[in-house]
Specification:
Layout (H helix, E strand, L loop, with lengths): L2 H14 L3 H10 L4 H23 L28 H4 L2 H5 L12 H11 L2 E7 L4 H11 L2 H10 E7 L3 H10 L6 E5 L6 E4 L3 H5 L1 H14 L6 H31 L5 H11 L35 E7 L8 E7 L4 H14 L11 E5 L21 E6 L2
Parallel strand pairs: 1-2, 5-8
Antiparallel strand pairs: 1-3, 3-4, 5-6, 7-8
């Protein structure tokens, strides 16, 4: 081969890596055209090379979805709990077990009503399962016999997780952002009476026990329903006597224009003797026809999706009784006032003011409700309101 052919052979070999004989074969068959020979080589060699590469690459593995841990409930069907689930769990789970035996099962309103009827304070604990301090609270505080004794005697414990329905409502309503959250609430007004800002004071059982004892010492409440009823009866009797004195004064003023004062005193001496301790004066107080005008109250509806339950607390001067009734969600606040007024008339417990002075107010935060608004617009679905008389 000439120098030109030898040069093309070397270029072909260096470019393709083929042997000299194979280079001569491709160049001679393409009339020693270097570019055409290289293109022909790759055109004929590429299928075999790619087939070898395809055989050497393994096929992709199928996609698989797996769960890293077993959730508490799988799917929509709850797993049936075993009777002795905690006994079969490891000892670590027993150590951090929540206080289910003393924890109130129900909503916040139900817990508050239970505490109010029992004359106890409401002790609220909101926990975040991702915070170790919450589990430490279960282990070091709630499971201690000393703390349990204080709670069972003076508190209703309501513990919820922040992710539960009731826990989310409480955190949104009271603006809770840090956990564990521990607070004492007045069950009647739903206002926070004490809150622990420092977490260390809560998980330390000695410090927490001292805080509860100090709170009970400075904030006494009736310890039984009997004491609460006695206090209510006493205050009601005082109000009755005051009401009788006011009515007597009004009658004295009206009679003074018809006769001498001596006749008035003589008439009063015969008709209004001094009330004894066992005499209920309210029934003898005359209520003006304008004040005790009857109202029309619609029948109580049956439970359903368009019906809600409302609890109404009467004024403390009337014993603080709590009424409970179902209303349509589209019923107005005036409909509820009519129901309360009708109850007062039947119980002969009207405090000398007209229905136009009767209003409804929310418990917390305190605000007077518009009488023309509906329960749904006022966000009073399954709520508690306070009935009061405005001046």
């Amino acid at each position: 081969a000439g120098n030109g052919e030898s040069s093309k052979i070397q270029d072909f070999v260096s470019c393709t890596g083929a042997s000299i004989d194979l280079a001569k074969s491709f160049l001679s068959s393409n009339n020693w055209d270097l570019n055409m020979s290289i293109n022909t080589y790759y055109a004929t060699a590429e299928p075999s090379t790619s087939s070898i590469e395809e055989e050497s690459v393994p096929p992709p593995q199928p996609q698989v979805t797996e769960r890293l841990f077993q959730p508490r409930y799988s799917g929509r069907v709850r797993q049936r709990r075993k009777p002795s689930s905690w006994q079969n769990q490891p000892s670590l789970a027993k150590l951090f077990k929540p206080p289910d035996d003393i924890n109130f099962k129900g909503s916040f309103e139900q817990a508050a009503d239970e505490a109010s009827s029992a004359g106890s304070w409401l002790l609220v604990n909101i926990q975040d399962p991702l915070e170790f301090k919450c589990h430490q609270l279960n282990r070091d505080v709630w499971n201690k016999a000393e703390v349990r004794g204080i709670i069972e005697g003076s508190f209703i414990l309501w513990q919820q997780e922040n992710s539960s329905k009731h826990g989310q409502w409480y955190c949104s309503f009271y603006g809770v952002r840090e956990f564990p959250h521990v607070a004492i609430l007045n069950p009647k007004t739903r206002q926070i009476a004490k809150i622990w800002e420092n977490v260390e004071d809560v998980v330390d059982v000695v410090s927490f026990q001292e805080s509860l004892t100090e709170f009970l010492r400075t904030n006494s409440r009736a310890s039984s329903k009997r004491q609460k009823r006695e206090h209510t009866s006493s205050s009601t009797q005082d109000d009755d006597l005051l009401q009788a004195a006011i009515q007597a004064s009004l009658e004295e003023s009206a009679t003074s224009s018809r006769g001498p004062k001596s006749e008035i005193k003589q008439h009063q001496g015969k008709q209004r003797p001094e009330p004894g301790p066992d005499v209920k004066v309210v029934s003898s107080v005359e209520i003006s026809p304008d004040i005790k005008a009857a109202v029309k109250v619609s029948p109580e509806p049956d439970a359903g999706p368009s019906v809600t339950t409302l609890r109404v607390r009467l004024p403390s001067t009337m014993g603080g009784e709590q009424l409970r009734r179902r209303f349509f969600k589209k019923a107005s606040i005036q409909n509820v006032i009519d129901f309360v007024w009708d109850h007062m008339l039947k119980a002969e417990n009207v405090p000398g003011k007209g229905i136009e002075n009767l209003v409804l107010k929310t418990t917390f935060p305190r605000r007077t409700l518009n009488k023309k608004a509906t329960l749904q617009d006022s966000k009073l679905l399954n709520a508690v309101v306070q009935a009061e008389f405005d001046d």
